Amino acid sequence: MSDTFRIDSTDPTILKLLYFFSHLCAMDMDEHPEVNAQGNAIYLRSAEKTADKAPKIPDPNYLRPHRLPPPVADGTPTPRRSPRFQGPVDDDRGPDDEPMSRSVTNLAFLGCKGWRGTLDDGSTVFAKLWDGWKMPASYSEHEANVYYHLRDLWGTVVPAFIGLGQWGFCHILLLSYIEVALSFRPLMN
Amino acid sequence: MLYQVKYTPQVGRNILKAFKQIHARGVLHGDVRPENILVRPDQSVVVIDFEMSELMPPREALMSEMSEVKRLLASFSHSLGVYS
């Protein structure tokens, strides 16, 4: 069929070009390896036949952690420090029952999994990120459950819990940012 | 191990109080380290990083963790001679 193709065509279409290229291939059976800028042949190395670096599929048997009842307050009303809980509190609610969408920007790395960021309302938050390819959501959900369990201590001896969710490929836990005066840094022994 | 802290008895008391409050709600922190204890300018204390924590642990585990906190405080006082 390539014999019928006019090479000096001034109105090539994709189909005509495919015919033309197939004609060239039929005429030239020599190998044409990919070359670099110096004209040396380059070869793509085959991936190792292991799944070590492959993304891990989340465990299908993973069960979400059991949500515990809220702690019994010692006669004092629970302080409601988060805007999420300004209304009537439903004790059966958990940290992930109320969907919300917040934009976190200006992330600054603080070390380990910790980041400092700014929410779309201008408030500074502490963000803890887990690599979603390596770590199941159970890690962040467990920590969120614990913070939820300690909600009457938010803003006093534990940071206020703001939210839990996904940020790109990461699981993210948002907490109120704590201005620190002292940090316990190990000295050189 | 020595820690570079401006340590005062008030900070030590606040650390103990913070862990007592957390334990009273049935939470074992599980990773008591100086890096997980933040001190605000007013010397109040915030405990962070509950990734290793347990909900409703045995009472013995809570007592063991409190001993761990006291050992940590003792190491501060021993290294700096401030806390007693």
Helix content of chain A: 10-25%
Distance between the termini of chain B: 18 Å
The biggest beta sheet of chain B reads:
2 strands, antiparallel
Q: Largest interface, with Cβ-Cβ < 8 Å?
A: A-B, 28 and 35 residues
CATH superfamily of the domain at 1-54 in chain B: Transferase(Phosphotransferase) domain 1
- Biggest sheet details of chain A: 5 strands, antiparallel
Helical residue percent of chain B?
Answer: 40-55%
Strand order of the largest sheet of chain B: 2-5
Low-pLDDT segments, ≥5 res of chain B: none
Q: Give the structural class of chain B.
A: alpha+beta
Query: Overall pLDDT of chain A, averaged?
Result: 72
Radius of gyration of chain B: 13 Å
Q: What is the CATH architecture assignment of the domain at 100-176 in chain A? A: 2-Layer Sandwich
**Reading side by side through the largest sheet of chain A, how are the strands ordered?**
1-2-3-5-4
Strand runs of chain B, count:
5
Entry keywords:
heterodimer, A: 189 residues, alpha+beta, Phosphorylase Kinase, domain 1, five-stranded antiparallel beta sheet, 2 helices, 6 strands, 14% helix, elongated, disordered C terminus, B: 84 residues, Transferase(Phosphotransferase), domain 1, two-stranded antiparallel ribbon
